[in-house]
Design brief:
This protein is of the alpha+beta class. The protein has a domain of 105 residues: TolB, C-terminal domain (Neuraminidase). 20% of the residues lie in helices and 33% in strands. A 4-stranded antiparallel beta sheet has the order 1-2-3-4, with no helix packed on it. A 4-stranded antiparallel beta sheet has the order 5-6-7-8, with no helix packed on it. A hairpin with a 4-residue loop joins strand 5 and strand 6. The longest helix is centred in the N-terminal third of the chain and has 22 residues.
Length: 153
């Protein structure tokens, strides 16, 4: 019985220390960025670490919001999407891939100008996210402007 009590005491101390250590790792709000005129939900995010930008899929607004993380400000609101959900930023090509839930398409934007460079119709993103195998990423960087879906290769 004494051994069981000692084991429970040791476990209690270990779990107590682990809980105390977790208190120090809680998220802390550092800054807020106002989004004028925005209402609705956010879904997924994409990050441009070198450009200090956060891309936000604003599901309720059918927009992608661009936030300047260095200046803590709203940079741009890009419209024309159909329930944007998944975002994937590819640093090597500086392209933002946007999965549209209700529009059944994937839009690709050049993040230097935010112009649309490619649109694949009839693509229903699975799990509301975009993930490309390496062979598709290579094809995307080589392929000229086309509506051909590289996922069907």
């Amino acid at each position: 019985m004494k051994k069981v009590c000692i084991i429970y005491l040791v476990l209690f101390v270990i779990f107590g220390m682990a809980a105390k250590a977790q208190e120090k790792q809680l998220l802390k709000l550092l800054v807020t960025t106002p989004l004028p005129g925005f209402s609705g939900d956010f879904d997924h995010f994409g990050i441009d670490l070198k450009g200090h930008r956060l891309f936000v899929a604003a599901l309720g607004n059918d927009t992608v919001e661009v936030l300047d993380t260095a200046g803590n400000r709203h940079e741009k609101s890009i419209s024309g999407f159909g329930e944007p959900q998944g975002l994937l930023y590819l640093e090597d090509t500086q392209r933002l891939h946007v999965a549209n839930g209700s529009a059944d398409r994937v839009d690709i934007l050049d993040t230097r100008s935010f112009a649309s460079v490619r649109r694949w119709q009839g693509v229903r993103p699975q799990n509301r996210s975009i993930r490309y195998p390496l062979r598709v990423r290579r094809e995307l960087s080589r392929q000229p402007h086309t509506s051909r879906n590289p996922l069907a290769m």
